[in-house]
């Protein structure tokens, strides 16, 4: 078995553990020939390398990811990663701490918008669990 295949399989395992089967199944079903290479790239790189590392915990990685997404203004991914906190162990209090840190180091408007998205996502999670 090739190293690349192993990294892809490991990435899918980690991706499913963090995001849940339903999310990954929807993403896989929506995959087209146009974005298939991109999906392979993120599965191998993000999930098979970075998220699969034992260097820090899933909770810490989740918090770092949310901070980076908010700080860089990549808001589309925040709801997905808020939902993932149910699996990573990052609490609502952790997420608040993350966005407070973002406010000081990257700007209040970005942190405010990220917190707004987190509140809406948590509310949705309470009414429609996956």
From TrEMBL:
Pfam families associated with the record: CMD
All copies of domain Carboxymuconolactone decarboxylase-like, residue ranges: 38-120
Recorded coiled-coil stretches: none
InterPro entries: 4CMD/NDH-1_regulator (IPR052512), AhpD-like (IPR029032), CMD-like (IPR003779), Decarb_PcaC (IPR012788)
GO molecular function terms noted in the UniProt entry: peroxiredoxin activity
Classification via Gene3D superfamilies: AhpD-like
PANTHER family in UniProt: 4-CARBOXYMUCONOLACTONE DECARBOXYLASE FAMILY PROTEIN, CARBOXYMUCONOLACTONE DECARBOXYLASE-LIKE DOMAIN-CONTAINING PROTEIN
Protein name: 4-carboxymuconolactone decarboxylase
């Amino acid at each position: 078995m090739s190293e690349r295949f192993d990294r892809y399989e490991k990435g899918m395992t980690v991706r499913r553990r963090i995001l849940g089967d339903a999310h990954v199944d929807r993403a896989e079903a929506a995959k087209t020939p146009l974005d298939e290479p991109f999906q392979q790239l993120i599965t191998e790189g993000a999930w098979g390398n970075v998220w699969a590392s034992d260097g820090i915990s899933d909770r810490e990685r989740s918090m770092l990811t949310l901070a980076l997404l908010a700080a860089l203004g990549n808001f589309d991914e925040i709801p997905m990663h808020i939902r993932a906190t149910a699996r990573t162990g990052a609490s609502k209090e952790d997420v608040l701490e993350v966005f407070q840190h973002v406010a000081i180091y990257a700007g209040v408007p970005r942190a405010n918008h990220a917190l707004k998205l987190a509140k809406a996502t948590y509310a949705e999670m309470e009414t429609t669990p996956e």
